[in-house]
Design brief:
208 residues; alpha/beta; Rossmann fold; seven-stranded mixed beta sheet; 7 helices; 7 strands; 33% helix; globular; binds guanosine-5'-triphosphate; binds zinc ion
Amino acid sequence: MAQTQIAENQSIQLPTLFGDFMMKAYDPEVLGEQPTVVIFKGDLQGREDVLVRFHSECLTGDIFGSLRCDCWQQLQETLKMIHEEGSGAVIYLRQEGRGIDLVNKLKTYILQEQGYDTVEANVALDLPVDAREDSACLRVLNDLGVRSIRLVTNNPDKIEKARELGIEVTDRVEIEAGVCDANERYLQTKKEKMGHFLKKNQQEGFLI
Ligand SMILES: Nc1nc2c(ncn2[C@@H]2O[C@H](COP(=O)(O)OP(=O)(O)OP(=O)(O)O)[C@@H](O)[C@H]2O)c(=O)[nH]1
Ligand SMILES: [Zn+2]
């Protein structure tokens, strides 16, 4: 007979293309929002310097493999890194379009097709350039018992926001993946206008 008593917030096993992981979903704190998800490996209770990525939802990239951005490649690369290291976590935040939502992101894509860059397109539509709020990360890290993290990101703002939340970030792990024709301008804009630590480009190997 199956055990029907399910402990609150229990993790499930998630075998993936990248190895065996565990997964948990958290009820949203705000009604109507999507649950934050964590996919992780290893017993992280009390651990320091855990490899962690805060990954912002990107339906076009994460689900359909869009090459307009680098999200899908970053997600895959991080899961591979965690698997190789034997422990770590990806906190999947429901912040589609850097928090402006999918419909608005697609509107910005229409402007980008007319020549606007990713920042200009948001501004032209009177949308914030970055509307993300990361407090869910603290909730997840506390739940897993993680003491400090090595954050997988190229975004300096993410590190600063994490520290403001009280998360101890001991190091940054760079994650450059999947530069191609379709996302080169997007990456260049992240580097020039948002200060991302990005080096590579597809021809010369490095962004200028
Ligand atoms: N508004 C907007 N959002 C986008 C666009 N392209 C991708 N995104 C969203 O951007 C988010 C990912 O953020 P990025 O700026 O690519 O990277 P980051 O997460 O800040 O930094 P990394 O940790 O280095 O990946 C996802 O939520 C995507 O849906 C775009 O052209 N406009
Ligand atoms: Zn994306």
